[in-house]
Amino acid sequence: MERNQIEIFDTTLRDGAQGEGISFSARDKLALTEALDELGVMWIEAGNPGSNPKDAEFFKQAAQMRLANAKVCAFGSTRRKGVPAREDGQLAQLLSAETETVVIFGKSSALHVTEVLRASLAENLDMIYESVEFLRGEGRTVFFDAEHFFDGIAQDGEYALKSLRAAAEAGAARLILCDTNGGSFPGEVSAGVLKAAAAVRELTLGPEAGAGVGEKPLLGIHAHNDSGLAIACSLAAVEAGCAQVQGTLLGFGERCGNACLAALIPSLELKMGLRCLPEGNLSRLTSISRKAAEISNRALVDDTPYIGARAFSHKAGMHADAILKVNHSFEHVDPSLVGNSRRFLMSEQGGKAAIAERAREFDAAIDKNHPAIETLSRRLKTLEAEGWAFEGADASFEILLCKELGLYTSFFDVIAFRVQSEYPAGKLLDCCHAWVKVLVSGQYEMAAAEGDGPVNALDGALRRGLLRFYPELAKVRLTDYKVRVIDGKDATAAKVRVLIESSDGDTSWTTVGVSADVIAASCLALVDSIAYNLNRANS
Fold first, then answer.
1. Where in the chain are the domains?
2. What are phi and psi of 106, to 5 degrees?
3. Which residue of 46, 63, 135, 227 has the smallest Cβ count within 10 Å?
4. Whole-angstrom distance, CA of residue 1 vs CA of residue 141
5. Burial level of 440, CB count in 10 A (0-12/13-18/19+)?
6. In what order do the strands lie in the sheet with 496-503?
């Protein structure tokens, strides 16, 4: 392996699957495997083939996959105490996965050996050695996870190192140092890695060595995030000599999760000059991370470093002005390097430079001194003082902008609407009913709809009234709805702000409405949502 290369080992399908609220089907695991392979990770730890039918089915189907970059690994433990390796059912299950590489974990902490495993220290070393030796004899490349290594080296350092020596002498190709409890600090991790590296250098290995004839096994790091330091500890481990980094792509996993590879990989490549992915693949990081989040049924956290929606968002006017002059003035890397993009948040703090930058999407000649920008800046401040907020409602801001630039087309007007609620709901009717009258190209249309709630009914009636004129609206759906009281001092008479997220199946957009009447505020946001979609489709 090249000296400046770091192996990326993703354990989303195994350690990530142990996270609360995560449940992968075999199909999910296959889809994630394809996504991770597309990204270009080197290793994918896919689970224990004998732990459940889903994992067994996954390994059966994965054997037929043609992966371009990654190798799938099966995961399990060392042999049980008192059971010869050749007779151990867990090791047999590992072999049944038919992966070239297998990962086994064993105890590196003397405390865990005597108090948890209830074995002698010598027997545990035999369990490690014999398990690795057996799997090597069956033609497998073996990675050894030294469980609780950093806790073990703090309690009984010599024994923790003996566990590494046992695995290496039996032929393990990788020795993975695990911060299993996630409680270590970066300095402790650095010190532990240096001790492990010194112990490996002292080894004299024969032709049975797993890394190659006479070659020393490489060190890896597996960090958990219980102290919020998994990324920092992983970077410290690399600086101290680890050549493999383990984690989950999006950071989720047992308890507080694992090191987030989506944040680690760019730091290793862009900040430390190390190669983690095939050339050019880093620019796919954001899109593949979003795909992985969708498959995992998890929202991608907006403030995730590098790939989050907020990672390159700018709100302060001074920041926006500066970044348009010198990109790196308020951005630590170019967002395009990781496949992300810069966003200017529209608010009273944003300033004319940010508004002008957004306007240039429609007219490249516009600058911050353009009359429309000055007018819109004043308008924005007035509206935000009244309770409107556009930083989370880009579509509503775009409508304001296009109206000011003379680029907005009014496809319809809502002349009147009525919403009624009945409780309890009848057996044949939903509890809410809405009636809407719209004007389209000089023609009036009235429509009614029932719904589970007043906004659902209003949305249905409005869409039904417009479908005859704009059948493409059949694809548009409301996907999220949020209400916030702007000023609680007026109690039930307070103004509310409604944010609505809509989607046509390909893209999503968010609109806002403000009123003392929650239904009126919802109607404003719904009208903006449909108007935005029609203007975009017909621009």
1. 7-278, 413-537
2. -145, 165
3. 63
4. 16
5. middle
6. 477-485, 496-503, 508-515
Beta-carbon contacts of residue 10 (< 8 Å; ≥ 6 apart): 36, 41, 43, 44, 45, 70, 246, 247, 248, 249, 261
Please list, residue by residue across 355-373, b when 16 or more beta carbons sit within 10 angstroms of its beta carbon and e when fewer do.
bbbbbeeeeeebebebebb
Report yes or no: 494 and 509 within 8 Å, Cβ to Cβ: no
Tens-digit pLDDT profile for residues 456-496: 899 999 999 999 999 999 998 888 888 888 765 555 557 88
What gap in Å lies between CA 511 and CA 116, rounded to an integer?
Answer: 55
The pLDDT assigned to 63 comes to 92
Q: Which residue has the tokens 């694992």?
A: 258
Share of the chain above pLDDT 70, in %: 91
pLDDT (average), residues 385-397? 82
Whole-model pTM: value is 0.73
**Range 464-480 burial, b when 16+ CB lie within 10 A, else e:** bbbeeebeebeebebee
- For the segment 116-141, the average pLDDT, to the nearest whole number, is 96
Q: Quick one: how far is CA 41 from the chain centroid?
A: 16
Q: What phi and psi values does residue 417 have, to the nearest 5 degrees?
A: -150, 155
CA distance 254 to 269: 27
Token pair, residue 260, equals 């987030």
- Which segments of 346-494 does DSSP mark as H helices, in order? 351-359, 371-385, 394-405, 454-467
Spatial neighbors of 443 by CB under 8 A, at least 6 apart, are 469
DSSP state at residue 112: I
Cα–Cα distance for residue pair 118/165, rounded to 1 Å: 21
Long-range contacts of 77-84 (CB under 8 A, 24+ apart): 77/104, 77/105, 77/106, 78/104, 78/105, 78/106, 78/127, 78/128, 78/131, 79/127, 79/130, 79/131, 79/134, 80/127, 81/117, 81/118, 81/119, 81/123, 81/124, 81/127, 84/130
Residue, of 311 and 175, whose pLDDT is higher:
175
Residue 327 pLDDT > 70:
no
How large is the average pLDDT for residues 414-439? 81
Owner of token pair 């059949």: 474
pLDDT at 427 over 60: no
Work out the pLDDT band at 375, boundaries 50, 70, 90.
confident
pLDDT digits (tens, 9 = 90+) for 67-82: 999 999 999 999 999 9
Which of 94, 30, 83, 91 shows the shortest CA–CA distance to 61? 30
pLDDT at 388: 83
7-278 — its CATH code?
3.20.20.70
What's the rounded Cα separation, in Å, for the pair 362 and 493?
40
Starting at the earlier edge strand, list the strands of the sheet with 432-440: 413-421, 432-440, 443-451
| Measured CA distances, 232 to 183, 214, 237, 304 (Å) | 12, 33, 9, 15
Q: To which H or E segment does residue 103 belong? A: strand 101-107
Query: DSSP character for 248?
Result: B
Distances in whole angstroms, Cα of residue 233 to Cα of each of 80, 251, 254, 305, 409:
31, 14, 17, 16, 54
SS3 label, residue 74:
strand
